[in-house]
Amino acid sequence: MRWICGCYGLVLLVLGVMGQKLPTRDEGLFQMQIRDKALFHDSSVLPDGAEISGYLFRDSPKRYYFVVEEDNTPLLVTVTPCDAPLEWRLMLQELPEDRSGEGSGEPEPLEQQKQQVMANEGTELFTYKGNDVESFISTSSPSGLYQLEIISTEKDSNFKIYSTTTPESDQPYPELPYDPRVDVTALGRTTVTLAWKPTPTGSIMGQPIQYCVVINKEHNFKSLCAAEAKMSLDDAFMVAPKPGRDFSPFDFVHFGFVPSENDFKDRSLTTNRALSNKMSRTYIPKPKVADIQKICIGNKNIFTVTDLKPDTQYYFDVFAVNTGTNMSTAYVGTFARTKEEAKQKTVELKDGKVTDVFIKRKGSKFLRFAPVSSHQRVTLFVHACLDAVQVQARRDGKLVLSQNVEGVRQFQLRGKPKAKYLFRLRGSRKGASTLKVLASTRAGGKQPFPALPEDTRIKAFDKLRTCSSVTMAWLGTQERNKYCVYKREVSESYSEEHRRREQNQCAGPESRRKSEKVLCKYFHSANLQKAVTTETITGLEAGKSYLLDVYVVGHSSHSVKYQSKLVKTRKYC
C-alpha cells in the first residue's frame, strides 16, 4: 500500500501516469520520513503507520486520502478527538481498471480515468459521531481510493489520526489488560490511593511504558490529548496549523479537468464557509485551569494522590504511554469523594478571659462565644505568637470578619441581642501555630494586651558597638507601657534561621532566666514621630554574639515580644 496526496486532482494525475502498480511500503524509507514531522504537517496525506495531529475550525470539514493498491489488505484507522466531539466517515472509491490496449501496458487516456473515478460516488464504510476514541478495522480491505472526512460542529478542536496497513505488527497503542479499570484502594481526607493492572505491552512485550495520572473535579477523560487540551492555557500544546491549500474547482481546471456543476457548488460553499470561519474568529486565551493536573509516574501501577481537599469529589484517569511512540491508551477512569474533615471540638470562650489556642500545621480550630447579656459590640483580641493565621468570625452563621493576623490585632464586631459568634482560626502552612484569644462585650476599661507600633523590630547601632557594649533602639506608642530588655549569649553558629524558629511572641519574661534580664522601664510619647527609646547594654565580652529581646507588658501582665535582634561585640578595640 502507498499513501498519496489528498486531493482529487493529484490522485487522478498519479493514476494517469503509466498506469503501473504502486510499490508497497519501504520500511527503511518510512522510518526516515516519519522522523521529519514537517513532511506531514498540514497535509491531506495520511502516512502509513504514523500518528498525525490536526486542527479543525468549527463547521469546516477536512478530508484525508490514501490508496490501497491490493485487495485483501488489512486496514486500521483510529481517530482521537481531543477537546470536542467529532463527526467522521470513511469512504471507498474503486480505482479504475487498466483495460486500455487489452493489457498491453499502455496507459488509459487521462480524461477517461478521471471520468471513471468522478462518476463513482463511492461506498460509505464507517461513520461515527462522538468524543470516544474510535477505530475502523478490517482484516481484508479492497483496493481503492479511501477518503476520511472529519468535522467538528461544536467548536474549534484538536484531533489525532492513526492509520496503518500492518496493524498486527505495528501495535503502536499500549494494550489494555483484561481488567482495564482503575481501582481506589485507600481513601483519606486529603489523599486517594489508586491501583490498576499493568499493560501487557510493558510487562510481557517489554516495550517502554510509563503511566500518567490525571486528576480533576469535573469528569473523566477518554484520551490523554483531551486532558492536555483542558490543561493548556491557550491550546499551545497543539497550535492550529496554517491553513493548507484547499483545492478549488479552478485548481482542477488548471490540471485539465472540468468539474461538474454540483462539485463547483459544494466546494465553493465549503471554501467560503471555511474562510469566513477562519477570518471572523478572534483568539481568546483560555484561563488557567488550576483544578486539573497530570502526573507521570514511570512504570508503577500504584499511586497515592496527595494534597486534595476534604469532602470533595475528584475524577481520576490513568493513561499508559508508549514512550517510544508517544502514543497512549486510556484505562477506565474512576472517581471518589475524599473524607470529611474530622469534626473538631468547639472551644467555649468566656467573656473577658484570655484563652490559649494551639493549631497543627494546616489545621484549624473553632471557638464559640455566646454572651449571656445584651450587648452592642464584641471586641476580639487575637495574638498570633508565631506565623500569621487566618481569622474568620460568623455572627449567627453570617460571615462578618475574614482577616490574616500577624502579632496582636483587635477587631470590633457589631453586636445583636442574643447573638452567638463562631470563630475559625486556620493555621500556617509552615508549621504549628500558637495563639492567645480574648472576646469581650465590656466597653471601655484597660485592655489586656499592650498596644504595639507597626514596626516591632529592634535596631542596633553598628557605629556604637564596642568590645563590651552595644546600643539598641525600638519604637513605642502613645500608651504608657512597661518594657523589659533581656540578653542571651549564643554560639558563633547561631543564625537568623535559628532566630526565626525561636520567635514566639507569646513567651513572656517569666520564661527567661533572671541572669538574662538587663532592665525594665516605662515609656510612651504623645507624638508618635518621637516614640522611640534607646538603651546601651554593657558588661559584654569581646567578640561574642548575643540575642537581644524586648518585651512589652500589658495591664493584665500579658506580654508581647518584639522581633529578636542578633548582635556581636567588636573583637578588637
From TrEMBL:
Its main location: secreted. The keyword Magnesium does not apply. Residues 174-328, 450-559 form the Fibronectin type-III domain. InterPro entries: FN3_dom (IPR003961), FN3_sf (IPR036116), Ig-like_fold (IPR013783), NDNF (IPR019326), NDNF_C (IPR045805), NDNF_Fn(III)_1 (IPR055271), NDNF_N (IPR056225). Residues 1-19 form the signal peptide. This is Protein NDNF. One of its GO terms (molecular function) is heparin binding. One of its GO terms (biological process) is extracellular matrix organization. Secretory protein that plays a role in various cellular processes. Acts as a chemorepellent acting on gonadotropin-releasing hormone (GnRH) expressing neurons regulating their migration to the hypothalamus. Also promotes neuron migration, growth and survival as well as neurite outgrowth and is involved in the development of the olfactory system. May also act through the regulation of growth factors activity and downstream signaling. Also regulates extracellular matrix assembly and cell adhesiveness. Residues 97-116 are annotated as: Disordered. GO terms for cellular component: extracellular region. It is found in: Secreted. Keywords: Glycoprotein, Neurogenesis, Repeat, Secreted, Signal.
